[in-house]
C-alpha cells in the first residue's frame, strides 16, 4: 500500500525533514496492517526492513527453547523497530508481534541507505534511535541481573506510568511476567507483596499507584520485601 508523505512526517526518525524529503521517502516505503497476535518479524530471519509503527502497539520479544518468553520492549506509534538488522544486514535478533491491531510502514535496507546518502540528517535520527534502544536494554539487563522479582515488578509499574508507549496498553499479568523475567504465579505474588506495603492498589486486575515514593523505593531495592520462587500463596 502506498504511503502518504504526511505519515512519513509523523515518524520520529524523520521529524526534522522537509515536506519534499518526506515525499521522497514515501516513494520508497510501503504500508501494511497486522491483526492482534500476528507475527510481524521472526527471530533469525534475514534481510528484514526497518519498521515504523503508524498506530497500534508492537511487542519485541525472545523465546527460549522451552517456550519461555522475555519481552524486550513495547513499541508504540511513531517509533521504530528492527533497526539493527535493517542497517547491518544480520539476522533479526528478536521477534515482533502486534499486541493489538497495528499498522506499520516498512523501508528496506537498500532504500534506507539511499535515503541516508541523500539526506544525512536522517543519520542523526538513526543515532538517537540506537542510543535510546541501548539505554533501554542496559536498564533491562540491570533489572534482570541486580533486582529481585519484587523490585522488578515495582520498576515495571513505574515505567508503565511514564513510558508513552507502555501506557498505550493495559498489561496482563502474563505480559508483566514476560517483561520482568518471572513466572506468572511469582509475578502475582510479588504484586500482592507490593500491595501490602500500601504502594499500590489492585482491584479487578487494575493496578493503581497510591504511593509513588514508596514504589520507587521498592524498585531501588530499598525495601525488605522478599519472595522465593517456590513461596506458597
What can you tell me about this protein's structure?
By secondary structure, this protein is of the alpha+beta class. Helices cover 43% and strands 20% of the residues. β9 and β10 form a beta hairpin. α6 crosses α8 (184-196) and α7 packs across α8.
Short description:
Helix content is about 45%, strand content about 20%. With about 230 residues, it is of the alpha+beta class. The strands form three sheets. Strands 1-8-3-6 form a four-stranded antiparallel β-sheet.
What key attributes describe this structure?
233 residues, alpha+beta, 4-stranded antiparallel β-sheet, disordered C terminus
Work out the number of β strands.
Answer: 10
> H/E series, N to C?
HHEEEEEEHEEHHHHHEEH
Shape: elongated
Give me the number of helical elements.
9
Biggest sheet: strands side by side, in what order? 1-8-3-6
Secondary-structure content class: alpha+beta
Report how far the terminal alpha carbons are from each other.
Answer: 51 Å
Strand content: 15-25%
Oligomer: single chain
Mean pLDDT: 84
Q: What radius of gyration results from the CA coordinates? A: 19 Å
How would the blueprint of this fold be written?
Blueprint lengths: L4 H5 L9 H10 L1 E5 L4 E3 L8 E6 L2 E6 L5 E7 L4 E2 L1 H6 L6 E4 L3 E6 L1 H10 L2 H26 L2 H14 L10 H8 L3 H13 L3 E4 L2 E4 L2 H8 L14
Antiparallel strand pairs: 1-8, 2-7, 3-6, 3-8, 4-5, 4-7, 9-10
Helix pairs in contact: 6-7, 6-8, 6-9, 7-8
